[in-house]
């Protein structure tokens, strides 16, 4: 990787670089999270379990808080394990593709 001499960049170039770094960080985080999710799912499956069996169906729900979990309606074409129910905040992979002109219907399952 080539080193960037930030001391010689203009303000506009620095702002552009900052935006690119933020985007790259978000993508790297998403990529790592998906890799870990896949490893956990593969390990569970190898031993005859599902992730839901091992960790439960939801996040941060205590006893007696049975909240319905939405069914996935949209999937990342690059990684079918990466899904979204259509509720709540859009995942980064979807936001990036929508910015590039894709339609939400392109990702329907």
UniProtKB/TrEMBL annotation:
Gene Ontology cellular-component annotations: cytosol; nucleoid; protein-DNA complex
Pfam family, one: Histone_HNS
DNA-binding protein H-NS-like C-terminal domain boundaries: 64-109
UniProt keywords, alphabetically: Cytoplasm, DNA-binding
Membrane-spanning segments: none
GO molecular function: bent DNA binding; DNA-binding transcription repressor activity; minor groove of adenine-thymine-rich DNA binding; transcription cis-regulatory region binding
Localization per Swiss-Prot or TrEMBL: Cytoplasm, Nucleoid
Main location (coarse class): cytoplasm
InterPro entries (UniProt xref): H-NS_C_dom, H-NS_C_dom_sf
UniProt record similarity statement: Belongs to the histone-like protein H-NS family.
Protein name: Histone family protein nucleoid-structuring protein H-NS
């Amino acid at each position: 990787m080539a080193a960037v001499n930030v001391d010689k960049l203009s303000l506009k170039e620095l702002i552009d670089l900052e935006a690119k770094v933020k985007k790259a960080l978000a993508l790297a985080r998403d990529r790592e999270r998906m890799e870990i999710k896949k490893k956990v799912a593969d390990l569970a499956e190898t031993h005859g379990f599902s992730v839901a069996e091992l960790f439960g169906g939801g996040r941060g729900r205590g006893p007696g808080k049975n909240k319905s979990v939405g069914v996935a309606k949209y999937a990342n074409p690059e990684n079918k394990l990466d899904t979204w129910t259509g509720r709540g905040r859009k995942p980064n992979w979807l936001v990036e593709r929508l910015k590039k002109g894709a339609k939400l219907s392109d990702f329907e399952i």
